[in-house]
Every structure is written in structure tokens, then in C-alpha cells.
Amino acid sequence: MKQPKVTVVDVARAAGVSKSTVSLVLQGSSLVNETTRARVGAVIRELGYVYNRGAANLRQSKSKIVGIVVNDLTNSFFAELAVGMDMVVQSAGYIQFMANTSENADRQGEVIASMREHGMAGLILSPARGTTAADLKPLVDSGIPVVLVARNVPGLKVSSVVSDGHAGAMSAVRHLIELGHRRIAFLGGFNDTAVFDERMRGFRDALVEAGLDASDELVISSAPSRAGGVAAVERMLAMRDRPTAALCFNDAVAFGACDGLRSARIEPGVDFGVIGFDDVIEAKTAVPALTTVSVDPQGMGRRAAQLLLKQINAGDFDAEAMVAAVRLVVRESCGAPQRVKELTA
Amino acid sequence: MKQPKVTVVDVARAAGVSKSTVSLVLQGSSLVNETTRARVGAVIRELGYVYNRGAANLRQSKSKIVGIVVNDLTNSFFAELAVGMDMVVQSAGYIQFMANTSENADRQGEVIASMREHGMAGLILSPARGTTAADLKPLVDSGIPVVLVARNVPGLKVSSVVSDGHAGAMSAVRHLIELGHRRIAFLGGFNDTAVFDERMRGFRDALVEAGLDASDELVISSAPSRAGGVAAVERMLAMRDRPTAALCFNDAVAFGACDGLRSARIEPGVDFGVIGFDDVIEAKTAVPALTTVSVDPQGMGRRAAQLLLKQINAGDFDAEAMVAAVRLVVRESCGAPQRVKELTA
DNA sequence: CTCGTAATTTAGATCGTTCCAAATTTCAAG
DNA sequence: CTTGAAATTTGGAACGATCTAAATTACGAG
């Protein structure tokens, strides 16, 4: 039941005007007479005309399409990020190519190439693990605005929106120290990523600041997932001098850590302090509710999208690095104040 | 640093051939001589030529773009669904417009219209609540393949991939009956949705089959969320003749139900049987681990995408309704077998 | 009426590709 | 050498919009 598609020419013929006039009506130009506009409008509706944006883009050589490439949509942090971008992109009248890379840099390269062929106006990328500056260089050099989000790629002159991992980690560790903890671990995350490095340095700096042990053995890296959290906690429990609390690389790791603690009959939030990072949706409703460093992923997504749109509209732009503020949200997983008293007593 | 873009004509000139030949090379035609192909290929790489798929689409009036519209990406069920679709769409060399509607039917209408203008070849839609057949009628009539996923829209002749809510609910209820429960409730979900209706009928049919009470008061609808679960369980506990177990509309409701039971000092999985629906990631690790009807969202997404691609490739197609099999995953929230003995003793 | 200016409308080129039909080259057989 | 079929290559017209510059129409003033 394929309808023969109707074009501006068909509309023009039916309305008794030229295609130029129809085009003018389409873009809401004030040059066209009110009665003509009405007539053309009526014909458009009657014929069920569908605007062919591709043809328009070809002529104008610009599009209202942005690319959004995310490394892991099943992780609710990145899903939230995507939703935030989606909001502002849609509201600005743009539409997005969105793709998930599953942390696969090759696949990432393919989808970015494809998006380029389709004429995207700009790209927001949460880079897959292992993305190099060289991977992105050609795209960036072509003059298409690119905004990196959540993760950075060292050695690339490009805009980015990331959270302040260092400050977040410091405030989390300071909180644990105030609660009386003296031996604190850092759990999870791949140690070859910039994000890991930043959070881990925040962790270290806070320990050093308080004159506490900050030796390497306290940093236990693993996959940044729930399973990785379980694994990391197991290794931690095997230590001679066991920590009494831990800062986790992200919330997923923190949940995994809680699972791991429970199966060792250690109750998180009571016998052991756990702090996460990201503040995903589930953090609030988990049991125990997770104390975590909130980075407002949706807000970051919005920020990134706004930055990208700004750069698209400004013909000319400079790379701009935004660091999103974070704040510690204290819930129950690191011990309530009254319990702390017992702990320190 | 905007590069002047190179086109087939530029490549042709540089390689000393005609643009037709370049085009042939681009589409890997066997008509072109091997040495010419190599020369053109070299020039393409050297000049950094980027294929303009928009122009090609215009000429051929077909595209390799599909639309994916999801009602709530922050819900991990739908995120998994999206990832499943993404996989097969990408592998087939297609690229996707993806948009989130946040259950807003108006926004959904806008993005679908926009995707249409951009010339998508087909659409996979997980419709927002309140989507009517009339909303989708024009699109479907235009001959563009549409596949509905996860939710159906009554009165629309269009393909769909949904889970077998009826069978899933029946098997869940049968399981509860085997465990010795004789009075079972159905909790949560909006009673004006097709999904609710289907699951609820499965619930009823299983009760009737066993000769048990299936009266209306046992069906307590509410928002399909954690909060809705709490509310529903409260209403249930106020009944004269209290049920001893419940099938919940989805896992979120089930988690809420557990919360509600606990605050009434009833331990889910011990004093009361709870079964969920969907098998979201958290179901496995919750305490108690949730017995639930697993629907493999990622698999459903893949299935839907395959169906869509099939319809795109077949010029002509019929609406096809797929029902994804489900299976009951028994964990701990409905009482382990040994506990059942005590219960029935 | 005629003119000039403002208000509308329009023809035709153009964007970067594909496709058709025709032109050109290649080459083995006669 | 021809010659004809096979192998390659190519010019020019699409595709459906926009844009420029020019044509046409409208209309109040002289």
C-alpha cells in the first residue's frame, strides 16, 4: 500500500503556484501573501505531503541531526545521561542518531563513520574504553563539533563535560574519616582509565591529608560492574589488616560490594561503610540506601547537549572543558550518625 | 578549520576518471577494472573523501535509517530492549534515530513526524501510555514498516513483538498454587493498558482452572512502580480475608510490595509469597531474590529489530504478531519448597 | 492613466549522488 | 588488419528541496 510520495512540485501544481512559493510557505517566510499561504497550507494537509528534510539538507549542506554515542546504555548512569541529552536535543528541534558501543572501540569507530556519512551536525560521545586521540582526530579536524562526556580522551583538543571526580572522592573519604574510619579501601574500576585515576587520586589525597595509610594495597581495581564489586570486596576481605570502609569506583561496584559483604555475613552500613559514586536512580531505594557522590547524570547530559548546540550554532568555536560539580549524598550505607558514635566509642 | 568538502567529482578529477566510475567504485561494482578501482580507492583515501549518504538516499529514495522510539529509557527493562535492537540494527548496516518519549504521547508524535521527514525506512516503537490507533494510522498507511514492541496498541493492524503475559501469569499463579497458596492477589499496574489486561487474565484463568476464588477484589491496580506496589499491598492488607501470596504486575511493583509487607512486619518469601514480572537485573540480587517471570528484554529487542528489517527488505509484507516466550524463574520470594511443607502442614 | 515602489511570485541553477543509455576501449578470432 | 562481442567508461538526467535574481502584480500618488 505504498503511496506515491508527494513533493513540493505536486503541492505547487495542486495549489496553482510555483514550487518556489511552496518552499517559501514551508519555511514560514513573511514574503508570501496571507491568502496564498493559507491555500498552500490546505493543499499540503490535503495531499498528506511529507517534507523531505534530506533533500533540504543536501541543498543547504547542513542538518539538524546530532550523533550521540554511548558506551553502555544498560548502565543506568549512561542511560540517564542519554535521556538528559535527548531532552535538550529534541527541544531544540534536532533529532539524534543514537548508538551504543558496548565498550567496543571498533564498533564505535564504525558508527561514528556512519553518522558522518549521514551528515550529522555534531557529536556527543561517551567514549568506549580504549578510545585513543588518533581515533577521533580526523573527525575533530573536519570541523564538526564534538563534545566528550563523562570520560575524557587524553591528548585531544576537544570540548568535554566531566564530573569532578577528584573533589567527589575527597569529600566521600573525608566523610568516612569523620565517621571514625581509619582504614579505607578504594574498590573497583579499571585502573587504566582517566576517570579511575582521578577518583583514586582524590581518595589518596584525602587519606594523606588526614595522615592515614594510603598504600597501594588499599586500591583494588576490577571491572566497574556489580560483578566487579563482588570480586573486589572478596580480595579486600582477604587482607591481613582489613579496612572498615570503602569508597567504590561507581554505584554498580558499590552494590556488588554490598552483595559480597553480605555473603561474608558482614552487614553493609552497619559493620562496614560503603560509599558509591554517580548516584544512579536505584541508589535511593536500595537497601541499605546508598551513600554516594551524586553527579546528576541527566544534568550532565543536558549540559553537554547545550554545549554542543552552542558550538553548532556558532560557526566558529573553541574547545571548552566543563567540570560538573558533585556533592556527597549521605544515606545509610556508611552508618548513620548515631551508629558512628558507637563505632568510635 | 572547516575543510572544503570533497565530492565524487573532486575524486573523479583527481583520479582522472568520470564521476560515474567513482560512483561505481563506491558501490563495489564488478564492472570497474581492477586497476582503476585501486587508483580511485587511493585517491579517496588521500583526499579524505566522506560519502554523502543523504545525497544517495535522495536519488535512490530509500535509506538505511530506522527509527527507535522508546517510552522510558531510564527504566532498565526498556534500556535493555533498546540495546537489543541497537545490536541487530547496527550489524545490518543500518543506523538509528533513537528517541525517548518519557511516556508523553505528544512528544512521541513529534519525534515520529521528524523521523519521517528524515526518511526513515522503518520504525520500532514502544508506545507511550495513551497512544491511540489514530496516532499511528497515517504512518502505517504510508506503507512504512512499523513494529510495536513490549506494548500493543489495540485496533491497529501492525506488527508487534510482545511477551506472553497470559502464559507467564498463569505459570506464576500455578506455581503459587502448587506451593499451597489458596488465596492469591494480583497487585499493581494501570488497569487501562493491554499489558495489564493480558497478565491479569492469565492470573484469573489460572485461579479458575484450580477452582479458586478469582473475584474482582483480588485485583488491586495501582501505578506500575515501586510506590504503586507499596500502595497496593496496603490496600490488600486491609481486606477481611487476606491473601497469602500475590502476583505483581512487574518487578518494580513486586519490590514495592516487599517494602510494604515488611513495614507491616510480614516477611516476604517467608510469611507471604511474592512473584514479579520482567526479571529486571536487580531481581537476582535483591533480598529476598525475586521469583519472577523472565521476559528477556534484550532478546525481544533483537527479535523486533529482525522483524522490522525483514519487512523493510520485503517490499511487501503483512502485519505479524510475535509473542515472546517467557519462563518462570523461581528464586526465594515465594518460599522455598521446604518452607511450603510447613505452610501446608 | 502612468509611474515608481513595494509586495509577491517565479524560473532555473544547484546540492552530491545514482542510473540509464550510449560511447569507447579491449581483444581474440577470422 | 578487420570485426564483433565483451569489458569499461561516461555524459547527462534524475532525486526534492533551496536560493538567487529577475519578473510580475498591486497600488497610491501625481
UniProtKB/TrEMBL annotation, chains A, B:
The keyword Repressor applies. The keyword Transcription applies. Keywords: DNA-binding, Repressor, Transcription, Transcription regulation. Residues 6-60 form the HTH lacI-type domain. Pfam families: LacI, Peripla_BP_3. CDD domains: HTH_LacI, PBP1_MalI-like. It comes from the Bacteria. GO terms for molecular function: DNA-binding transcription factor activity; transcription cis-regulatory region binding. InterPro entries: HTH_LacI, LacI/GalR-like_sensor, Lambda_DNA-bd_dom_sf, Peripla_BP_I. PANTHER family: HTH-TYPE TRANSCRIPTIONAL REPRESSOR PURR-RELATED, LACI-RELATED TRANSCRIPTIONAL REPRESSOR. This is LacI family DNA-binding transcriptional regulator.
